[in-house]
Amino acid sequence: MKNSGLGTRDPGPEKCEQASASGLGSLPSPESQVPSPGFLTVRRYPGLSSYKPIWRAMQAFTDARDADTLDELWIVEHPPVFTLGQAGKMEHVLMPGEIPVVPVDRGGQVTYHGPGQIVAYPLVDLRRLKFGIRDFVCRIEQAIIDTLAHWNIGAERKAGAPGVYVAGAKVAALGLRVRRGCTFHGLAFNVNMDLEPFHRINPCGYEGLQVTQVMDLGGPSRLDEVEAELVTQLARQFGLEARTAPPPMTNGAGATAESSVNLAVP
Predict the structure, then answer these.
(1) Which has the least CB within 10 A, 47, 62, 95, 107?
(2) Buried-exposed string 39-76: b where 16+ CB fall within 10 A, e elsewhere
(3) What Cα–Cα distance (Å) separates residue 82 from each residue in 62, 75, 153?
(4) Closest CA to 167 of 185, 150, 186, 148
């Protein structure tokens, strides 16, 4: 499989067989569609982890993995940073101010990461799981939808705009990269954060797009509570058994700001 990024090219609700009219519901028996046994190694990075070291670590992991490498899910919380996808246009970065802008190799436009947001990076071998990229996107979206449903929050997809929405406001964004059939980058799920920086950009390239978060929708404010349910739902959609492991030593944890405010990325 050639390198690819995933951005605004979205399968849409009509392409996701698991979507119901309400946006709720799950894939039928995902466990039966993948090899068994299969494991998903879940690594939770403590504190705030600077974006660039995690990004570089994802690239290195993907480049080094082989057919026997177990799939992983990295759970991270970043200090404030805007990331601009491969197709991103600087015109959508309105007033970044003191928050750095980092061009990256995922699909999509500009988004914001900051404290109070769950960022989950699924490092998955699509060929081994026999998933197409569109199926994989649908499964990630469904995991988020099912996570929100746990707290009776009705969420849905929006045709042409990857991610998950509640009453038209975006609660989770997606941006992926596929290299040699393996994914990196992932999803950003707003839980309990300062949403002001989203007003400094056109989120995901859409002017005036409203953004929301779990806490404001009546869900929990604690990230660990939402993370636990999200991991359960992602593992279920991937048909894998989640098991925890410590993060690598080179995690960039504890940093409170990105190392550079420049647009150039080394």
Answers:
(1) 95
(2) ebbbbbbeebbbbbbbbebbeebbeebeeeeebbbbbb
(3) 23, 18, 27
(4) 148
Q: How many helices (H) and strands (E) does the chain have?
A: 4, 11
State the DSSP string of 105-145: SSSSSEEEE-TTEEEEEEE-BHHHHT--HHHHHHHHHHHHH
* Burial of 200 (C-beta count, 10 Å sphere; 0-12/13-18/19+): middle
As a whole number of angstroms, the distance between CA 109 and CA 201 comes to 10
| DSSP run (H or E) holding 4 | strand 4-6
* 177 touches 5 (CB < 8 A): yes
pTM (predicted TM-score): 0.83
Query: Are the C-beta atoms of 188 and 80 separated by less than 8 Å?
Result: no
Within 13 A of 258's CA, how many CA atoms are on the CB side?
A: 24
- pLDDT by residue for the chain (266 residues), tens only, comes to 444 444 433 444 445 744 333 333 344 344 444 444 499 999 999 999 999 999 999 999 999 999 999 999 999 999 999 998 887 778 888 899 999 999 999 988 899 999 999 999 999 999 999 999 999 999 999 999 999 999 999 999 998 888 999 999 999 999 999 999 999 999 999 999 999 999 998 887 778 889 999 999 999 999 999 999 999 999 999 999 999 999 876 444 444 333 322 222 22
Question: Closest Cα partner for 140 from 151, 105, 129, 216?
Answer: 129
Q: Which of 49, 103, 140 is nearest to 111 (CA)?
A: 103
Residue with tokens 């197409």: 132
191 burial class (0-12, 13-18, 19+ CB within 10 angstroms)?
A: buried
Q: 147 with 220: CB under 8 angstroms?
A: no
What amino acid positions are annotated as catalytic residues? 204
